[in-house]
Fold these 2 entries.
Entry 1:
Amino acid sequence: HSLSVYPEVNLYTKKNEVNDVFYLDLVYRKGEREDAVIAVLGDMIDKLGTDSLSRQAFNNALQRVGATISTQVTPLSFTVHLEGFDKQFPEAVKLLGHFISSLQMSEEALKKVKDDAKLADKSFEKDNNNVWRVTLDRVLFGNASDYLTGLSYREVKSLTTSDVAQSYRRLLARHCDVVYSGTLSDADVRRV
């Protein structure tokens, strides 16, 4: 089923007739091809807490309601995936809403991403397969190649948490598809 919830949000639902596990995806129609900083955000987000919960406290709250959150960044979209049990759906969605609306950037998380980028940059040139991947990507996608549109190590190194926060705010302003699979009715999902 497809329902328009808000002008920039569509809700798609599918019944899960196997068990009482739900899956909820928030799919923002903006990816790393349009804003390369989104890839950095994707690498940071599992290390971030909120304005009132550290990452550990947030993970503990998720565990109490039997839910998990993960993210996926593609060239065309940014997806936040929430999974849990339907009986805890309202509580899990409340935590997700808090996380999205109160995400707190962290210098420590950004430093970890920069360190990882530095390591990847150093090891990139040592693997001949990378040359083939870059060449193939360029032939297939031309100037839209991820290797050309993505951030270089130098660009990642120069990013600030303010840059990432600004990219995050722009992402949240984009169209969002909400995809739910579980045992709840469309009306129950829409209400939450």
Entry 2:
Amino acid sequence: KAMHKAESLAEIQFMLVEATKAYTIASAQLQQTIDLEQKIIDDTTRSYEERTEALDKQSKALEAKAKLDLQQAQLQENALRQEIAITANFEERKAKEQELSEAIAERIDKETQVALVALDNAQKRREIDLEEEERKKSINQMLQDLSTENIENERERIKKEMELAQERALQELDLLKATEEQKQALKEQYAI
């Protein structure tokens, strides 16, 4: 019976070591993606599309990493439960139960991290969307200002042309020896 317990413990520890190796590599790869995409998200010189695409990629990587972290915590917790089940020594069992309590607390923390990742990503999305909305508003305001300026410039140009035409017409009336009443009638025509 003792031999079977020792084999079970060795098997549990071997599986945990193998899972931890795979976890460490996968976690590092996901963290690399998270970090690289964060640089793109934070780069306000990038387009809205590039930043939202980076956020989507980062969100997927963050979710995958959070789930991976949670799975690893659950695996450690399960391994400790199995070790407790085959441990006969009271002191060793008490130490393992303490480790299990810590593992449970770590798993709860990982579950919290999964929820926080979703909230953080939603906030980032709102911030990027808000920045894009502000950018579009600025462009629209600039276009509206230019349109208003163009209208005012056109009005000013037409007004000057009318003044010039009136001046030429008055000069022509002077050459034709028109009366003051005729000149006044011309001025009234241009005043309309």
